[in-house]
Amino acid sequence: MVKGTEHRRSGASTPSPRTGDLDLGRRIAARREDLGMSRKDLASATELSYPYIAQIETGYRLPSSKHQPMFARVLGMSLDELFGTVESAPPLRAEHPITGAPRPSREEAIERAVRELETLPASVRLEALAQVQMKVMAGIVEDRSRTR
């Protein structure tokens, strides 16, 4: 051993203590799955890292107060629902912000969009798809600018 330094002989590392809330993590994971999202999808939608999402869902850390409203918004929940401070369980699906009808899952929305695009003549489908992408991206940029 080099003088003045300590050397770990056992190769085994001490596991990190759980500083989060396992119930909160389970609520987030369950809601994410109800919406048909993967952890990667949630990380992308919240602009947070996959490891951070995994640590929250497994109870190793809490989301920062800065990120809590973002989680609630992306998951279509109130902060009370997210943190389990309301008596009733959150609905399986968030409501559509305009019609109030249940919001479709990601897969249902994709299937609906594909069906609609397939009704167009083949000669205009790609351009229509490009326009849909541009409108979706503009909406995402607008949503992100509102949360900052």
UniProtKB/TrEMBL annotation:
Q: Which residues form the HTH cro/C1-type domain?
A: 28-82
Q: Which keywords accompany this UniProt record?
A: DNA-binding
Give positions of region: Disordered.
1-25
Query: Which InterPro entries does this entry report, sorted A to Z?
Result: Cro/C1-type_HTH (IPR001387), Lambda_DNA-bd_dom_sf (IPR010982), TransReg_Diox_bact_type (IPR050807)
Keyword DNA-binding present in the record's keywords: the answer is yes
| CDD domains attached to this UniProt entry | HTH_XRE
This protein's source sits in the domain of life called: Bacteria
Establish whether keyword DNA-binding is in the entry: yes
This protein is called what?
Helix-turn-helix domain-containing protein
